[in-house]
Write the structure tokens for this entry.
Amino acid sequence: MNMAFLARASSVAAFLLVVMPAQAQIRTDKGTDVSQSCEQGLTIPAPYGESDLKGNAKFPAYCKCFMSKFEVRAEKAAKYMQANPGKAPPGTLEQSNAEELEMRNSCRKQFGLPQVVLPK
């Protein structure tokens, strides 16, 4: 069950990796709160989602932090895919998941939020 859920979450992340840069940039340029893009994570149970932060006053700031890191990663991937049509950016699914976990925990630490610990 956990592996299937993780694979599904990774598929969603991969999809967002491709489409998020333009959306995030538009929202940022308009000054709109980018936490709206992050709210979907509140519906995904911890530790794979952000449901443990539901109702936390620091959630919007956390989302802004995470989305800025996610946008940088997505732009890098988009540039790679433009330069290498038909090829996914290098790295394994496990490496991508570990990078995303590091981004989440980095932002959580910045705002004094609990760290995400994945089950082994």
Notes: Residues 1-12, 14-35 have pLDDT under 50 and may be disordered.
